[in-house]
Amino acid sequence: MSSVDRQLDDLQAEIAAEIPDDVSISDVTYEGPELVVYTRDPRTFAEKGDLVRQLAGKLRKRITVRPDPEVLTSPAEAEPEIREVVPEDAGVTELDFHPDTGEVVIEAEKPGMVIGRHGSTLREITSEVGWSPEVVRTPPIESSTVKNVRDFLKQERQQRRDVLERVGRQIHREEMADEQWVRITTLGCCREVGRAAFLLSTAETRVLIDCGDKPGAEDEVPYLQVPEALGAGATNIDAVVLTHAHLDHSALIPLLFKYGYDGPIYTTEPTRDLMGLLTLDYLDVAGKEGRTPPYESEMVREAIKHTVPLEYGDVTDIAPDVKLTLHNAGHILGSAVAHFHVGDGYYNVAFSGDIHYDDTRLFNGAVNDFPRVETLVLESTYGGRNDYQTDQEDSERKLKQVIREAHDRGGKVLIPAFAVGRSQEMMLVLEEAMREGDVPTMPVHLDGMIWEATAIHTAYPEYLRDDLRERIFHEDENPFLAEQFNHIDEGEEERQEVADGDPAIVLTTSGMVEGGPVMSWLRHLASDERSTMAFVGYQAQGTLGRRIQNGRRELPLSDGDPTGRRETVTMEMNVETVDGFSGHADRQGLENFVRTMNPRPEKVLCVHGDESSTQDLSSALYHEYNMRTFAPRNLETFRFR
To answer: pTM above 0.85?
Structure first.
């Protein structure tokens, strides 16, 4: 018998000793980080509402209780009883029964009403029918991505359980190492923006944090081939943690499965869905531009199947000696600061991912309240000594002025923006500006993935600011459903009609003008001196967006056909940069993030910024707070303790 099997037997005996005599336990197993307890008395378990919480506290594990399939009411009998228990106003749209696990997935417009106060309605459902309810939200805006992910996971449910059981046994295996140490190896993202990838190693475990591409540099990928990463084989990595879905952090996650990785990916639920959306589009764009994609779409599905979604604040075992907690990073939907607790109080490391320290229209600011952090790996995108962004009110005031001036000239405003994050921020600004009369009401055309990404935002309103979440819950107040928003879905003909028509605003991908529909809009609008191109997000070095920002007027545009044929257009549009809308903290925000940590870290690694930005921030933190700071290069390894 393996050590894990002995451990499960011991846990089953311990649970049996803790619970009342009228509750039986038929099986105990691991699924990922959770301990799953099967019982023939689900109704009794449900009626004793505190029992699961008490067990979780006693065993110090995340516990899920499921009914033994043999004691379940048939779905035909259970469905009307569930609908009787759940308030009609909850808007239940679908019930999906899974007899193998005894779970019923309830999709509803208002999940909170299905859950009930402190889970009271969920317990009542189990008491009535025996089934264990799981609740998901029906998106206010239909999302093909959310639907496809849910359908895929439903289809792969048994395979996913097999993956989770294997992962669970890995997490809870017996520790083999005789010593303790912690190391971080930089595989990308150092003294540069993009290709984020870091390896956190202990004597027992290796965890890869992020695995992205580099905007404007297709051939520069993370150094995965080094021995401590994939150079010794894909099984060398125990777990992957994804901080957020932007491609400079997520694009090459599916590549790991092409190389044979078969382990878990820990991230938030919206990041999982957005990763699927963005990586599939990444493959599509590569194909249209005549490039060979680095992996097939099947690898994206593998990544989704292996994802273990975590909620902010949940402390989760991901290895025998590593606990992970994700916290809101304030950057984009589902973005996270990843906090690692190594050993039994041995060492703590936090990876900021990309952060925005102050509140925005979309999100609360980044969390930096950790019990302990000895080392912080901190993004430095705007870490330069002069990287102070404009106050958001001033930024919005300037954007409105740019829009009014273009409108008065009879022109268009073309705003290249990331599909995820900046586009939704722009939509909120524009909806309010038109509602309050600060700019003339005009069509706002959304091109590329922006509408789909917006739909995903409405599927996860719990990750948004409180006031915005409440507005989304009320369809007549949902700002994303304002009538001026038009989803471009007819391709070139519709774009030509917009270009030939009355003043309008066009929000389009890609945010750094590196392929995507923005290239088509440049063909239509570049020669129109009445129109304006407005940059509202970071433009990385080497991208066409940065070159336009710096005054480039002769623009080479790919035709998007397999031959790679190009044409050149002359830029006659006005070009404006409106600072203050970035999803990244500026220099002051980064300093405030560190300054307000209590306790502050002993060491800070400044990454994800160009050479001057990382060095400037590193020097400033050293002088201000008397901590050891570094601006590492790629392929450096730091040992802590």
So the answer is: yes
